[in-house]
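Duplicate of #3305? Posting structure anyway:
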């Protein structure tokens, strides 16, 4: 297809001879005269699609001003402010883990990725990069660091120095590397369950001891058990506290005073804090996320922040896409060495391009996404407050996961999971998140509203 097209273009070569931006001129010609632009994208193979996107690449290569990019359905309107989160995106044939585990008639609302397309700014940047067919060894460019520095400042009000930032091969892989850097087998890793299960799972796999300091729950609100924490941190074997900030599965946005108090206690006891901030960009209802290391001198001295665009921009399958911010050089150096020694410090091209695009061009898409998620959450909360099923939704302050308190149903955990499964829903099992998770399930509402409504109707 491509060669056919370029064959016909050759006839017109004379017309473009005088132009300095030759590839660009050819593509403008393809897009504007050979066929309707949408039609071109539809019929063309991946290679031809590259040609359709070549104008901007041509612009980069030759130094010409990139022209308007040919628009295709999947490229989308980057800055229109109108994104269709109601669209049911076909994920079949994409090796989706979420759908792969669900039976045919089940709605999968478990693992934490969303059923929306990623931001057009991200997919467009990735396509442009790929269409150059240049996939050699790649260094981490200045733009990567700058996009993170600007994002942290603008989104979270945190002024970050460039030296503090490193590329990381995914949040969990990197937290595991931090366990290896700062602890020995048998050392204690403190968690505050119910909490994201992989903190515990990998600590145990690496032969570390998990020490629980469960959150307090009064049926409405969660709180840190500071009395318990004081005792836990004073144990000689406690070396690291892993904080989920914002918190998964309960969607809590920790406030500054709580974080400050945690930092003071941890520093007094010589315990480091790993702050997993992967859900930070998804704070809702105008709330702001507080980066752990920004709250005090103590926090900056003992904290390691791990974050990335994978949750907010729905990039979980790009994988190996994260960064860490470590203000204290005495922690940063050994951690960076650990990543280097394991050869985990080289960012894949896709991670770099996606992160830069998300953080430099994704703000308005993200804002729209958050508004849409708030609408979905409202559906869920209203549904459970108007239908007396013994289920109470804890409205998340961040992200797209709703923690459902089903204890009043009086079912054992297996029965509870069977209840939802028989209704045609695949949810996350609350018990997986540790103490305090029994009697709960987690519902992922990162999908079109009509799917959320359908899921709720099934529960009735
Ligand atoms: C709190 C938290 N941390 C980390 C991850 C996974 O991050 P990554 O895929 O970068 O390892 C998730 C995914 O659900 C999560 O909820």
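Output from current build:
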């Amino acid at each position: 297809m491509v060669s056919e097209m370029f064959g016909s273009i050759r006839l017109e070569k004379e017309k473009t001879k005088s132009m300095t931006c030759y590839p660009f001129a050819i593509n403008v010609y393809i897009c504007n005269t050979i066929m309707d632009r949408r039609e071109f994208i539809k019929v063309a193979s991946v290679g031809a699609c590259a040609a359709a996107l070549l104008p901007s690449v041509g612009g980069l290569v030759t130094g010409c001003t990139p022209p308007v990019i040919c628009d295709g359905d999947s490229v989308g309107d980057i800055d229109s402010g109108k994104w269709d989160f109601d669209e049911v995106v076909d994920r079949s044939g994409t090796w989706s883990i979420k759908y792969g585990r669900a039976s045919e008639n089940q709605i999968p609302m478990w693992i934490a990725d969303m059923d929306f397309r990623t931001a057009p700014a991200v997919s467009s940047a990735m396509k442009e990069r790929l269409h150059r067919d240049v996939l050699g060894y790649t260094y981490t460019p200045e733009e990567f660091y700058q996009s993170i520095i600007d994002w942290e400042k603008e989104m979270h009000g945190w002024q970050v120095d460039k030296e503090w930032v490193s590329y990381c091969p995914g949040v969990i892989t990197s937290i595991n590397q931090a366990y290896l850097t700062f602890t020995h087998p048998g050392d204690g890793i403190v968690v505050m369950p119910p909490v994201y299960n992989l903190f515990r799972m990998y600590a145990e796999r690496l032969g570390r001891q998990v020490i629980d300091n469960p959150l307090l729950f009064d049926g409405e609100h969660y709180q840190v058990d500071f009395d318990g924490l004081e005792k836990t941190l004073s144990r000689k074997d406690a070396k690291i506290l892993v904080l989920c900030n914002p918190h998964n599965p309960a969607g809590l946005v920790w406030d500054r005073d709580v974080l400050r108090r945690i930092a003071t206690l941890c520093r007094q006891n010589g315990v480091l804090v790993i702050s997993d901030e992967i859900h930070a960009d998804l704070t809702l209802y105008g709330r702001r996320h507080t980066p752990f290391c920004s709250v005090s001198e103590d926090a900056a001295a003992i904290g390691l922040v791990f974050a990335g665009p994978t949750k907010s921009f729905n990039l979980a399958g790009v994988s190996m896409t994260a960064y860490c911010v470590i203000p204290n050089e005495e922690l940063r150096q050994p951690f960076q060495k650990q990543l280097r020694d394991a050869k985990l410090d080289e960012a894949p091209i896709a991670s770099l391009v996606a992160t830069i695009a998300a953080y430099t061009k994704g703000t308005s898409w993200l804002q729209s996404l958050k508004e849409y998620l708030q609408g979905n959450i409202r559906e869920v909360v209203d549904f459970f407050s108007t239908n007396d099923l013994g289920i109470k939704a804890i409205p998340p302050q961040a992200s797209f996961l709703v923690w459902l308190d089903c204890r009043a149903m009086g079912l054992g955990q297996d029965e509870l999971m069977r209840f939802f499964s028989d209704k045609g829903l695949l949810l996350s099992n609350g018990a997986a998140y540790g103490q305090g998770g029994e009697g709960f399930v987690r519902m992922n509402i990162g999908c079109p509203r009509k799917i959320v409504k359908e899921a709720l109707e099934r529960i009735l």
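Confirmed duplicate; merging threads. Residues 1-77 have pLDDT under 50 and may be disordered. The radius of gyration is 24 Å.
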